[in-house]
Amino acid sequence: MTTAIYQPIIAVEDDGTIDTDWFQSYVWNVDADGNEVEGDPRDDVIDHLGRPNILPSAPWVESDYLLKLARYPNVWVKFTELYTASKTKQYPYKDVHPFGQMVYDKFGPRRLLFGTGMVGVTRPIPLADELRLIREDIPFFAERDKEWILGRNAAKIWKWKG
């Protein structure tokens, strides 16, 4: 049996450009063990931690499909929109931290990207607070990892010259 997983995704071509025809969503067909049956060889960036449904206690999230995708080295995750996932809506969205740490532990800091929600639509906090969240208020981010999450990973995946 396979399950289709629909996620906000950004597909990245070999030259670092974004495939705009493929920008909105992507389907992974995975079996019961999370093995990809059908996929894409390009780098795929999953937006907003995969839009998890956060639970108040362990296992912290309704479905662990995102964590199962960590086995694919071409899958990256934007560590964004914690406020959207949060049930409390209270900065720094501590109810999302346990799942966020699971994503961090599975994907590693070299496959996480900083980003924000759409201004005025899904981003209710100022950019300064978005940055402070990553720089100061996510307790499991090691200091050495923040530089990667805040920019070096994006430069790598989109092949920006620096």
Structure in words:
With 162 residues, this protein is of the alpha/beta class. The protein has one domain (2-157): TIM Barrel (Alpha-Beta Barrel), CATH 3.20.20.140. 27% of the residues lie in helices and 19% in strands. It has five helices and six strands, in the order ββββαβααβαα. The protein has a six-stranded mixed beta sheet with strand order 3-2-1-4-5-6. The longest helix is centred in the last third of the chain and has 15 residues, at 143-157. It is globular.
- Structural class call reads alpha/beta
Secondary structure: number of strands: 6
- The number of helical elements comes to 5
Tell the overall outline.
globular
The whole-number mean of residue pLDDT values reads: 77
CATH topology: TIM Barrel
Helix content class:
25-40%
Number of domains: 1
